[in-house]
Design goal:
Radius of gyration: 10 Å
Helix content: under 10%
Largest sheet: 5 strands, antiparallel
Number of helices: 0
Order of helices and strands: EEEEE
Shape: globular
Structural class: mainly beta
Distance between the termini: 16 Å
Strand order of the largest sheet: 4-3-2-1-5
Strand content: 35-45%
Number of strands: 5
Length: 60
């Protein structure tokens, strides 16, 4: 399922990139329209256009 809306700023989410099968846990940054991985040794960001699906963490 492809979403057209984006999560609220600062929301904890799990997301999946269109070029990977692995789900990642992160936070959404509305100002930069980026998904930020939260369990990574380095700061890793993903552009919202690279995300195929996401869910709020409390919905998982």
């Amino acid at each position: 399922m492809e979403r057209t809306e984006l999560p609220e700023n600062g929301s904890l989410v799990r997301f999946k990139r269109f070029d990977e099968e692995e789900w990642k846990d992160g936070e959404y940054d509305e100002q930069n329209k980026m998904f930020i991985e939260i369990y990574s040794a380095e700061t890793i960001t993903h552009n919202s256009t690279d995300i195929t699906d996401w869910d709020y963490m409390e919905d998982v």
